């Protein structure tokens, strides 16, 4: 099956094309998308029974306004070929104590996962959702996911995604979020596998005092490539965002990071910051970062920092001589 997605993970404002950072395209031969015949849900079914999102005009209205960081072609592909996923609605005032855990294991007979996830947290509710993706090293597999998040007034959504796919895997992950007054989304992402990994987050801080935190760790070796695109729009007043990206690159691996904080008119008193720290363990790696701050409001605070470098050779020798894990 041929997969072609053009000009995805776009920077909101283009820069010089020779930098190769404005967008990325995907053209790959992937396994045919068939049914996923395993049950990924590891949580107590009795908990989920009361949280399943019922399709309604209200839920469709809430989720239809959510944008994602990848282009519409990617969204259409996932909605057309989806073979798994979860839809949750956390009722007002309910705080789910136990994490909701889905574990996807890809293998020769279940070589594709295209999961479409929808999570609505109503006023003063809280939920934690964990999604993990794994496969054997030698299996050719494909994952593409789309997750919509809607955090209502003073609601909290904790989303954790762990990608541990083998080196013959292609992985696309697309997240869109909308936050109302006092809503909070904490997104934790681990990108530790696959030959090609593309990730995108688009968050609209629409309500006053809403908050979006993104914490990502990544690892690239051999000829693996990673591509990140995070866009946070500060729309309401007194909104807050933090993007933290930490990782390491070895061999001939590559990484592109696009991080955009966009302070819209009216976002007075808002604060946003993004930090990236990348350890480089080879002179052959390719590491590109584009931290971007856009501003249409005066009374805001935006910060960004990107650090890339090597560990001091003496310190590295000291750690390795004592069998320390790097």
TrEMBL record:
InterPro entries: Fe-S_cluster_assembly_SufBD, SUF_FeS_clus_asmbl_SufBD_core, SUF_FeS_clus_asmbl_SufBD_sf. One of its GO terms (biological process) is iron-sulfur cluster assembly. Residues 106-322 form the SUF system FeS cluster assembly SufBD core domain. This is Fe-S cluster assembly protein SufD. PANTHER family: FES CLUSTER ASSEMBLY PROTEIN SUF, UPF0051 PROTEIN ABCI8, CHLOROPLASTIC-RELATED. It holds the Pfam family SUFBD_core. Belongs to the iron-sulfur cluster assembly SufBD family. It comes from Anaerocolumna sedimenticola.
